[in-house]
Amino acid sequence: MNHMEITDEYLGKMDAYWRATNYLAAAQLYLLENPLLREPLKKEHIKKKIVGHWGTVPGQNFIYVHLNRVINKYDQDMILISGPGHGGNFFVANTYLEGSYSEVYPNVSRDMDGLQKLCKQFSFPGGISSHVAPETPGSIHEGGELGYSIAHAFGAVFDNPELIAACVVGDGEAETGPLATSWQSNKFLNPVSDGAVLPILHLNGFKISNPTILSRLSHEELEAFFKGNGWKPYFVEGSDPKEMHRKMAETLDVVMDEIKAIQKNARTTGDTTRPVWPMIVLRTPKGWTGPKFVDGNKIEGSFQAHQVPVMMDKPEHLDILKEWLESYHAEELFDENGRLIPELEELAPKGDRRIGANPHANGGKLLHDLRLPDFRDYAIDVPAPGSVEKQDMIELGGYIRDVFKLNDEHKNFRIFGPDETMSNRLNKVFEVTNRDWNNPIDKDTDQFLASDGRVMDSMLSEHMCEGWLEGYLLTGRHGFFASYEAFIRIIDSMAAQHAKWLKVCNGLSWRQPIASLNLLLTSNVWQQDHNGFTHQDPGFLDHISNKKADVVRLYLPPDANCLLSTMDHCLKSKNYVNAIVASKHPRPQWLTMEQAVKHCTQGIGIWDWASTDTGEEPDIVLACCGDTPTLEALAAVDILHREMPEVKVRFVNVVDLMKMEPKNKHPHGLSDVEYDTIFTKDKPIVFAFHGYPTLIHELTYTRTNRNIHVYGYHEEGTITTPFDMRVQNKIDRFDLVIAMLNNMPQFGNKGAFLIQKMRDKLVEHKTYIHDIGVDMPEVAEWKWTGVK
């Protein structure tokens, strides 16, 4: 360890470095040319449209500079997460000065030419985002949508014992629901096997145009809040740079020594009792060091500093900007070639210790493929379609249990979910691991809790599960999130943001691929016997299907063997968002493992054993997607074949939903020729779908055969029987038979009589469940008997 003394000389150099970062951050906002003001500033040197943020930037530059000192002193492996990432110019400025930016983007060189490109590109057409975006070296968190910084930080340090994630939390961000509950994440950190998170709450007092709540609390109230959440807050407050540099340096040394002491004690004694981790509350003016007043309005220390502190809409503003930029004395900081002077360059860490070059922030560099068992070893023996009944998620649980076992050495796999692992029938994983929990444990009541558990389901927050998982994946590990289908909607926006991140990363050659974000949606819409309407929402499929086609994948396996094949594929994949919808209830099993592998590999197929059109033109195509629609569609074929065997039905099952979209829109999509071969060009199609019918219509809008009739969820539901849920939304077997006959007028009176019979059955069903309270035996006990 390099025991650097906090001398006035060293702090003076740090202040100079900080001035350089502030100068470059402001220059990126404003300057098109003349990046170091080597000639008098003119209007033509300034961007026509100035877009970006300033208020948070100086404080975050201050933090970055001080973290550099800590990294050097402790030879510390550290990443930085910027919660208020809309101040992206701060991160770019710092990575540029330390050299990591130019290594990734050689054209943005460390000279006058590179400086001009650096300034011009910021928040400029053809340039870079104003956020800490994927294009920014060292970033795993864009910070455009607020609330997830601490969750990402904790995800990053799970199973990373030498890593510290410094996490800047904006005081506006701190008001969001996800961030407000993130403070509880310390109850899941193991001081032996995990790294540490250092939250730095940046209190600059204001949001866009309002004060922040935490900044207006008394010191005592704020301190009590954090102590009550299990943190030890250290306060660094002020506006005088000289005083603040010493306070921050001294506080960081105290905090780092505490973190090291906590870890040493735990790792030498094996005592994993939850410690009280330190954190920092940094209070500085918003827009610190920027213009004090513009047009009589207070800027520094007010909400007016949030975005662009001085607009270039008045001639006198040019002088204000000039005076502001010159206040940093760039001539003292950069040499004649436009490079940071050597005595300041030496303050930055070297090599991979630089925040912008840390491999944890480019997690694909550290990614080890999972060791996976052969999913075929977990196959359900299916002598004939529908002859066996199993619970798909229970069978998957055995496979996931063994994924844990095979990767125990690397400890690079976890599963996440909000207190639903048992409910979602993944019980078998508890044969080899526990839930992560670093709070007191009551041995008389608690189940499967341990400080070294690898199942992250002991916090009832979808936001935390998703945020932890994203942080875990972004730093080079693997996992999945199992959720009730309806409540995956809580993290709609988080999943969308991650999909956007991956979309941008796919265009960056230096960003190495990471493990896919796998979302397992179970406890689904079609059976909510004791929860009812609130738990019925398949809309996540609609939401995620609209994201970039090279990122999103949607799978709806109809049985356990297909689920095993699908999950194995998804765990091997990289840079995707995979959504898998699965059943947890007892269901008939349709395919052998050999058939399942073929079916899932193709993603869609004609089930010949359920079709009656072999070698002939079908009268109708009956398609289905999802476990419950598959069950009801097969029951409908069974009825139609018994009652009207002359009808030629082609039975199609879809596992990979994006097969329905044209190939020119999605890489998994069928070509028009392939689609027409399966669905025909003109025969009527009745499609039983797991989700909202409009999604199938959207995916197939440009197909030749527009004679498609989709039956799915129509926002009808309550606490009722499983079959009645299907009846209420008209995807039950009786309604599907009626739908098919309505689209085959050539069968005339015979079809009319069967339609009447089906309507009678629907009345009989309603009467029965209202009298008895369960589904009719002919429904509940129905078995596939075959049509061949």
Automatic annotation (TrEMBL):
Family to which this protein belongs: Belongs to the XFP family.
Domain Xylulose 5-phosphate/Fructose 6-phosphate phosphoketolase C-terminal span(s) in chain numbering: 584-784
Broad EC category: lyase
GO BP, sorted A to Z: carbohydrate metabolic process
Cofactor(s) for this UniProt protein: thiamine diphosphate
UniProt entry tagged with the keyword Lyase: yes
Enzyme Commission number(s) of this protein: 4.1.2.-
UniProt cross-references to PROSITE patterns, sorted A to Z: PHOSPHOKETOLASE_1, PHOSPHOKETOLASE_2
Keywords: Lyase, Thiamine pyrophosphate
Protein name per Swiss-Prot or TrEMBL: Probable phosphoketolase
GO MF annotation list: aldehyde-lyase activity
InterPro entries in the record: Phosphoketolase, THDP-binding, Transketo_C/PFOR_II, Xul5P/Fru6P_PKetolase, Xul5P/Fru6P_PKetolase_C, Xul5P/Fru6P_PKetolase_CS, Xul5P/Fru6P_PKetolase_N, Xul5P/Fru6P_PKetolase_ThDP_BS
Residues annotated as domain Xylulose 5-phosphate/Fructose 6-phosphate phosphoketolase N-terminal: 6-365
One family name in Pfam for this protein: XFP
Lineage, broadest ranks: Bacteria, Bacillati, Bacillota, Clostridia, Lachnospirales
